[in-house]
Amino acid sequence: MKDMKEWKLKALTDIWTGDLNQKSGRLIPTGLLGSIRWWFEVLVRGLGGKACDPTSDVRCPDQRVKEPDKPGHHCVVCELFGCTGRARKFRLMILDDRGRVIQNQIRAGHTFILRFIPLRPIAPEEWCLLDATLRLIADYGAIGGRTVFKPSEEWGIADLSPGDLDDSGGQIRVKRSRHDLPLQPGDVILEVQGTPVSSKAQLRQLLVAKHHGERLKIKITRSNGTQGEVDAWAGKQYHQDFGLVTIEQRPEGVSCSKEVAEAYVSVKNPRWRTNFQDDSFAWASLQNFWCVKGRYLARRGTNDSSFNKVLGRKQDKSVKERRGKRVIRWSDLLENKNDEISKWLAGRQQESKKVFSFKHPEEARRTFGFVKPGLVNFAEMKKRLSQAWAGFDDKEFKIGEQILDELFGEEEGQ
After folding, report:
1. Residue 381 contacts by C-beta under 8 Å, 6 or more apart in sequence?
2. Are strands 90-95 and 366-370 parallel, antiparallel or unpaired?
3. What is the DSSP-derived secondary structure letter of residue 338?
4. What pTM did the predictor assign?
5. What CA–CA distance (Å, rounded) separates 247 from 256?
6. Residues with Cβ < 8 Å from 282, sequence gap 6 or more?
7. What is the DSSP letter of 412?
8. Which residues pair with 252 in a beta bridge?
9. In this predicted model, what pLDDT tens digit does every residue of 333-347 receive, in sequence order?
10. 355, CA 20 to 30 Å: which among 4, 222, 313, 327?
């Protein structure tokens, strides 16, 4: 494994990769690899290069260039990560701190190692770009799936809301639930983490300080009279933060200057394929990126969501109508259905939002997103954020150009 390089990371939240059934119990390495590639594309575009979208019709290779090593066959990202007819240059192993392959989901607090083993020669510039990508993720972004989940300050238990529970009889009984949840209708909650509870007020006091997704042991009596303990969680999983990491150790000799990186990815470099239309995804560039550290957007109540305020959606989450099993809430709708900026920021079905926010842990709290030249600029995003956050200062708003200078300006270190 000559020339392999390792980055040692620590998970600050759980990391979601998911399996074929969208369950989180196992680690799917391709989930992490796809996320790393996406941020690598963001970095390359930010440096002035062009990167294809491997999920679109303009993905590499160029069908007119048959030989994989011929100039113009593939873009600079596919040079490292591969494309149809050209394997990626490395093998990625995800290991624990004892060097064993990780098979289960990476949980908050776990240390893990990303080991990149070259299968073909990897250029120094590629190592540099990969290192900058991982630092970009750790310092300003997130890795893996479910990073679009939004925080909430509302309390709950095992995906149930207070309205799903009844305490009128001197005990907490589940009224409503889903078949796939640990708590079912008729269950009585006796204890949470060893503390007896008999009212929703007591339960709220226990849970309000816990973050969504935090593991809990719950003692219950089932509707058939049997008692037992179930593994569950605080709040609702779709409000849980995923994908925040910090880098604990980097390999030596992987830094380069911004000028070197720009020259390598440049559209003037004849090696790279650049003759493709990227209008639909070119917004995913560090040139269009912004980040605010130490602040988050969240739902604070039924009619109060700073996240929706920034996106331009209605804040009221009460039910508007039901169409079979589908529930449509007012909060699914825009305040102004003709607002093109809000349409883009909020995304559509099967299309990601362009604003991401993370509440937990506090030391890694952040909100970041993208703008789209010609539609929405940084000034508009500052305006929307200032309406959501009291005392928001322009100096808190960092843009991609500043981050690029940081990534390529710092000294090589561990």
Report:
1. 290, 369, 371, 397
2. unpaired
3. T
4. 0.86
5. 18
6. 45
7. P
8. none
9. 999 999 999 999 999
10. 327
